[in-house]
Amino acid sequence: MISFEFPVNERTRSLLRLEQLYRRLAYFVDGEHANEHHSALLTLFELMETASRADLKADLLQELERQKQLLEPLHDNPAIEQHTLDGLLDEIELTTSRLLELTGKFGQHLRENEWLMAIKQRAGIPGGTCQFDLPSYFLWQLKPAEERRADLNRWAAPLMPTAGAARILLKLLRDSGKTHHYLARKGMFQQMSGGKVVQLIRVSFDESLGVLPELSANKYALNIRFVSAVTGEVRARQTDADVDFELTFCKF
């Protein structure tokens, strides 16, 4: 099975983007080659821009608190594993505390580092980080991998509370999902929403079908169109085959 996730609102869209960037950052930081650490640094710059929205921190704190208020009454539910619930509540509490400790604009410590900002500026130019453009950066890339990794972890550390918040909220959102089986006849499926509000929609199907889903959704209707999974210069066309798929609606 292959799954595609579609955010329905801007908050979920931001969370998914943060998740992707933090995963990429962790992957490249763990690498050994200077090119991998260059990619990690570029990802740091992407995170700085993606999460710089002024109300992001407030949004995360608000949603974490709301989830905490919803979860705490479950202590009285015998069907809930109390150890797991306590661990989740402790994680929310710790992440909230770390977010509250953040002061100033997201990534401000990076913006105040002139050396890093010089790299960021040159990185926006194709081939702009060559040795003759940034000789000091070239020297940094010649350092042992463990030294470069230590620098990257130090620069990333103030950003990590946001990673924790995004991870917790996306886990809760995904775990809330209710899955239904449907058939898209000749690649088309439509369902009236009836005013139902969700934050995330997941479409899953057999990867061997060789199709991709195109989705549009609002409070009135959901439309899914399956097109041929093609690459290169060939234009994707709607499949003529019936597609058996799973549809999962996730909401807090």
TrEMBL record:
PANTHER family: CELL DIVISION PROTEIN ZAPD. InterPro entries: ZapD, ZapD_C, ZapD_sf. Keywords: Cell cycle, Cell division, Cytoplasm, Septation. GO terms for cellular component: cell division site; cytoplasm. Interacts with FtsZ. It comes from Crenobacter cavernae. The gene is zapD. This is Cell division protein ZapD. Belongs to the ZapD family. Signal peptide: none annotated.
